[in-house]
Amino acid sequence: MTVELQTLIITAVSIACLHTVTGPDHYLPFIALSKSRGWSLLRTLFWTITCGLGHVASSVLFGLGGAAIGWSMYKLKWAEEIRGGIAAWALLLFGVLITAWGLYRSSRNKLHKHFDVQPDGSMYVFEHNHQQTVGAADRNKVTPWVMFIIFVLGPCEPMIPLLYFPAAKNSLTGMITLIIAYSVFTLLSMITLVVMGYYGISLIKYDKLDKHMHMLAGLALVICGAGMVFMGW
Q1: Which of 4, 80, 98, 228 could join 218 via S-S bond, C-beta 3.0 to 4.6 A?
Q2: What string of DSSP letters covers 28-89?
Q3: Do the bridges between strand 123-128 and strand 140-141 make them parallel or antiparallel, or are there none, so unpaired?
Q4: pTM of this prediction?
Q5: For residues 50 and 26, which has the higher predicted lDDT (pLDDT)?
Q6: 24, 206 in Cβ contact below 8 A?
Q7: How far apart are CA 60 and CA 38, in angstroms?
Q8: Radius of gyration of the chain (CA)
Q9: pLDDT in tens, 99-108
Q10: Which sign does the torsion angle of CA 214, 126, 60, 74 carry?
Q11: pLDDT for res 45
Q12: For 26-30, 35-39, 119-123, which range has the lowest pLDDT when averaged over its residues?
């Protein structure tokens, strides 16, 4: 295994964990639904894993767009000597863009999802910022299948450059390894946080982390890209 691939795997695992931990919609709805509906731990984990698989699948499909660009880069014979450097710079620049976007979102108090559990056990999802008042008409009732759709339609954007790099190097093994690493650690993070919440254990101040989710994922890409470009990782 090359140093480059090891670096990408560490980055993929870091992004998977950060993306999950800093995104309370990855675990709080399952905890709330299990409590309000009296689900067993087994049923709670079933829906957690089902939605997690949908989220992972959409993220991978999203990332395959980046892989297609990388593969096109690989087929350019004139770029044979420099495509590794171009791929590393692309990873760094994409990380900078995601970090800047995350900083903008957090500073501008952009819309974000919230889940509201009613006394009767029903749950609603809505988008707002902290200067908005949300009315009943702006909320949508949450069911397990609605959760699944939300997860499928919310892919993890940093998968694009992660898969671009091994594709540019014509490494199918590298792409598969990154997909497996990201998928496994995303699901493990979701399961761990849901089980903790199911048993009433809360160690995370999620309200402080939510708005920084994209910025932290971008920083992981910046560190990875900068290491490849400037330090020869």
Answers
A1: 98
A2: HHHHHHHHHHT--HHHHHHHHHHHHHHHHHHHHHHHHHHHHHHHHHHT-GGGTTTHHHHHHH
A3: antiparallel
A4: 0.77
A5: 50
A6: yes
A7: 33
A8: 19
A9: 887 787 777 6
A10: negative
A11: 95
A12: 119-123
